[in-house]
Q: What sequence folds into this?
């Protein structure tokens, strides 16, 4: 990986020197089918012609290409010796003219890691499917280019593929004489070009919009997936959300969708949630649901569809100059995804999901040693790859939500409209966006930007309450704290809500005030004189980005009456705050788990309930005292089974509790019930055990040694599909056997025969919380292997291994010391690798603090 890196300084120097007029790329993908050529990597022919200008004739530069071989290189009519100018990563370009033409004929390799041109063979029918994924810099694995976001250009793609295949790219395509020729794109960056090819199932539709001036916009729509998933594909719902999103963005952006058609392809073994390639958006195929799922899954898919659609403007039309300003696309898309979801679709509770789910991701990331400002310092491509994180997405989106409250909705949207028109098909930096927002709002934003975009860390807001003898508030203040490592106190626009129980027992809000919190202590004068509350909720309505704390009385109220809180957003905010208290070792893990089982059964929002299940498991795995884990595991299993049996038959709550029960099943009776549900000898009224739920029940049986390889293979025979294969691999690796763990380790760490999806599945099965003793021998092996893995494997696989196999389940001081020793001995290793290990060490240290807190609660 290090030799494939590109620094910001190199990119800046090349952008000052070169400008690109256009690309012509011809790919021959017929080699994707048939037998491979021995042990050599399977390759395809890629011929690229680039027309570009040089500001300093006679200067030198380079083009990017990662390929097994180059057949020819021609620069301005001169044939160059490939061996002399190509080193496997870059093509040296000497003595450039004012106007240049470069043609590169290369043999590029198909990928098994989800990077570049990924090749997938469907085990169900043997069909081959191809798609590309480039962000941040893997287009160079498919064609020669200048791989940086600010060297935008139009592209013409030609693709020769096996007969009968469907082939798509960014522009509209026509099949002529066996070759697909695609219309030239608008000027776009390399990382959002795309090609998809294979026997894909396709559904078509169209979108039509008549604007006020009488002009009509028609956008051809299509949705694609593998043939094996066609029977599950609810394309009509995908199109419904797509049309609602296009209406919303046209209403608010005043800039018609600029990229012609709008294809959306759901592809196998995808590393990301989705990718915003203009005209050809790609999604992970898990968004096609093979079994019954809850409304939260449909909401999540709709949010992703709208997130990628927002990128057509924020990211594709106007693109950041370098990855420092990645937030200019990802933060905006994350915010606009939820904004449009709530206002344009049936998912009216999208801000609850945002507060409970997305912000949880941001809070964790913002407390790691690798936290960074929303506008980050991205030195190179490895930095960029790791910065697709909770800061860039969820914190950035939270900050934008705060900005909308600060400048006003109308000013914010008018700023976006001016931004698009002023910078269409160009590249921007932070100052370009702030300039238009200052114009439209009349507010000076440099100070706001310094506090919110240019500093790291999360603040805590705590209410301080004093009342008189009559039970009236004499003073309510909000105290703001910051971690010593990131001491910035920020200006917050917050709502403070006062809650008390009604005669019916519901916990309801009876007073609210919005105020600007600035500095260490702010008095909320508007609430003086109000009756004493049972609960004070700072950041009611979730206007700002902060960790919410509680006064003692409010915390006592939540312990007994959280389930009585009628407002679902307020309830989600309280749950999130309680989880942050647990992670910060301010609430014992056993108390949090107790709260979940006291109140989660009344949770109406299914997405919040699913988060509570995840948090409860994490609390037991990482933050509970080791001596209490066995008791805690029984409590989890008993509580889950109780809620499963009392849930409304056939409801999505029942399905959610069923999945949670399977995940925490502990006793022989629990496992017998799972086996009975699999075999049909047991029944829970209303619960349909479809294929996906069968795998969910089989995995804990495998992990407890109650399902052997034959049973797992028999289940694969029932579901001999790509999805079934992933489940099978995970179940096999989950078995409680030293030999099984050794085999899984060897497959992932020592070999490279597994695809990205199967590496991920194997790691998930390998690292089981209930198998700490089996995993103990791998702590030393991990630290011996990770630098080699990082050097030899792709960055995606490296990230899977370094994160997924970190011995965090060996949660003791010895493991933390071993991690710190590795970091001390490897100060000069790849910064991105060090970052991953530092993050894991911080998580482990946090776990140990939580365990100490939980042990103290036991007396």
A:
């Amino acid at each position: 990986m290090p030799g494939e890196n590109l620094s910001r300084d190199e990119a800046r120097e090349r952008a000052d020197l070169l400008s690109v007029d256009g690309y012509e790329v011809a790919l021959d993908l017929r080699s994707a089918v048939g037998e491979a050529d021995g042990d050599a990597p399977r390759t395809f022919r890629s011929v690229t012609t680039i027309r570009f200008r040089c500001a300093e004739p006679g200067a030198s530069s380079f083009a990017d290409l990662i390929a097994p071989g180059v057949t020819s290189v021609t620069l301005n009519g001169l044939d160059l010796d490939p061996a002399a100018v190509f080193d496997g990563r870059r093509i040296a370009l000497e003595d450039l003219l004012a106007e240049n033409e470069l043609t590169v004929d290369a043999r590029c390799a198909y990928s098994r890691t989800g990077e570049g041109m990924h090749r997938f063979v469907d085990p169900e029918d043997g069909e081959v499917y191809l798609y590309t994924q480039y962000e941040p810099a893997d287009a160079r694995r498919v064609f020669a280019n200048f791989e940086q976001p600010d060297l935008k250009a139009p592209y013409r793609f030609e693709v020769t593929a096996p007969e009968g295949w469907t082939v798509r790219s960014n522009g509209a395509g026509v099949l002529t004489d066996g070759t697909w020729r695609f219309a030239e794109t608008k000027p776009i960056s390399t990382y959002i070009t795309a090609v998809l090819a294979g026997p894909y199932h396709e559904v078509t539709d169209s979108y039509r919009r008549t604007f006020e001036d009488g002009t009509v916009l028609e956008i051809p729509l299509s949705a694609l997936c593998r043939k094996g998933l066609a029977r599950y594909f609810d394309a009509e719902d995908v199109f419904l959300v797509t049309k609602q999103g296009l209406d919303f963005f046209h209403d608010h952006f005043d800039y018609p969708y600029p990229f012609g058609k709008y294809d959306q392809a759901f592809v196998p073994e995808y590393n990301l949630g989705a990718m915003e390639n203009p005209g050809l958006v790609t999604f992970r195929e898990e968004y096609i649901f093979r079994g019954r799922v809850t409304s939260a899954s449909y909401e999540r898919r709709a949010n992703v569809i709208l997130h990628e659609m927002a990128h057509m403007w924020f990211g594709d039309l106007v693109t950041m100059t370098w990855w420092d300003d990645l937030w200019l696309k990802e933060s905006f898309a994350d915010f606009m995804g939820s904004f449009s979801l709530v206002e344009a679709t049936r998912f009216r509770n999208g801000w609850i999901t945002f507060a409970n789910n997305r912000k949880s991701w941001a809070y964790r990331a913002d407390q790691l040693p690798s936290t960074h400002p929303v506008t980050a310092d991205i030195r190179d491509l490895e930095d960029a790859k790791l910065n697709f994180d909770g800061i860039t997405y969820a914190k950035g989106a939270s900050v934008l939500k705060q900005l909308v409250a600060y400048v006003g909705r109308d000013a914010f949207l008018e700023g976006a409209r001016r931004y698009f028109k002023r910078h269409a098909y160009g590249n921007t930096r932070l100052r370009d966006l702030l300039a238009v927002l200052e114009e439209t709002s009349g507010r000076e934003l440099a100070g706001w930007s310094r506090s919110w975009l240019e500093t790291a860390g999360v603040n805590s807001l705590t209410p301080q309450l004093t009342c008189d003898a009559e039970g009236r508030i004499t003073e309510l203040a909000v105290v703001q704290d910051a971690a010593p490592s990131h001491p910035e106190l920020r200006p917050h626009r917050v709502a403070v809500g006062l809650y008390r129980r009604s005669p019916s027992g519901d916990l309801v809000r009876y007073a609210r005030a919005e105020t600007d919190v600035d500095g260490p202590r702010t008095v909320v004068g508007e609430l003086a004189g109000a009756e004493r509350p049972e609960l004070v909720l700072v950041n009611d309505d979730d206007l700002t980005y902060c960790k919410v704390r509680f006064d003692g009385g409010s915390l006592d109220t939540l312990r007994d009456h959280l389930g009585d809180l009628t407002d679902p957003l307020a309830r989600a905010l309280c749950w999130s705050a309680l989880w942050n208290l647990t992670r910060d070792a301010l609430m014992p893990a056993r108390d949090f788990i107790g709260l979940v089982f006291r109140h989660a059964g009344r949770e109406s929002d299914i997405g919040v309930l699913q988060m509570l299940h995840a948090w409860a498991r994490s609390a037991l795995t990482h933050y509970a005292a080791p001596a209490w884990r066995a008791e805690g595991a029984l409590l989890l299993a008993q509580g889950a089974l109780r809620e499963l049996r009392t849930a409304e038959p056939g409801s999505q709550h029942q399905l959610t509790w069923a999945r949670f029960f399977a995940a925490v099943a502990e006793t022989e009776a629990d496992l017998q019930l799972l086996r009975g549900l699999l075999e049909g000898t047991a029944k829970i009224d209303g619960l349909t055990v479809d294929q996906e739920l069968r795998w969910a029940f089989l995995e804990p049986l495998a992990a407890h040694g109650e399902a052997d390889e034959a049973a797992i293979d028999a289940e694969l025979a029932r579901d001999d599909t790509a999805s079934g294969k992933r489940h099978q691999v995970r179940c096999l690796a989950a078995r409680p056997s030293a030999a099984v763990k050794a085999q899984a380790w060897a497959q992932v760490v020592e070999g490279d025969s597994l695809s990205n999806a199967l590496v991920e599945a194997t790691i998930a099965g390998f690292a089981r919380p209930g198998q700490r003793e089996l995993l103990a021998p791998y702590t030393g092996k991990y630290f011996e292997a990770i630098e080699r893995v990082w050097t030899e494997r792709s960055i995606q696989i490296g990230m899977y291994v370094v994160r997924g196999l970190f011995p965090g389940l060996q949660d003791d001081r010895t493991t933390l010391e071993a991690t710190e020793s590795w970091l001390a001995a490897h100060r000069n290793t790849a910064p991105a690798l060090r970052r991953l290990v530092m993050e894991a060490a911080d998580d482990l240290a946090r776990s140990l603090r939580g365990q100490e807190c939980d042990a103290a609660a036991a007396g």
